[in-house]
Amino acid sequence: MVQSHSTGSTITSHLLSLSSTSSLYARATKDHPFLVSAANDNLSTGLLSLWLSQDRIYAAQAYPRFAGALISHIPFRPPTLSASTAPDYSQRVLKILVFALQNVIREVGFFDDTSELWGLDLGQWRERKGTRDYTAEMARIFGSGKLEEGMLFLWAMEKVYFDVWTSVNDSLTEIQNPPSALRSLARNWSTAEFKVFVDDLADLVDDIYRDLGPDAWTLAEDVWRRVLELEEGFWPAAREEEDLAV
Q: Between 45-57 and 181-188, two packed helices, what is the crossing angle to 10 degrees?
């Protein structure tokens, strides 16, 4: 039940506070066996390699198409309407999507550098069903042409990713083990710079949804729930690497 506008809540705080998705959020961000192993620093090299290969597919292929499609949906205001008092988020959306594209290019390079440094062969794995499900949903979202849902989906992906790796990194700092690929990845995805990006994205999404009605907020709950389902499915199960080697 949406209670946003009457209480003054923002869309992102509303979604994060939903009791109906709290257990799903926990499974997607902390309780999945893959994440428990990562936080305890006993994740196998093979399973980490498998997961990173799937994340590279997401980052190198699906994410650029997603962000690029969202840019094409930005409704830039004609010059004749530039004096309008109606909110115009087009430049803010463009700026944050361009940053996201520039950043994901760096991320793909980081994947490759990290895998080479630590001897992770990312080319030895087939694509998982969880990866195909995630990228298919990204294509469905940008294919709908609804920019607000696309931006919400982007925030949800980035928010969950940041929360996951911040939690893992916090746990790893308490364990006195040597440097590793996992530790390098966790540090990279829990930085203050990443938090600023996620917060800026949340502020933009909040402003966009502040002007939308309850129907849009109800649909936003569905988008949030779907992202959490996809995130949970994106983490591979123990010994799954034995079945997906090329």
A: 40
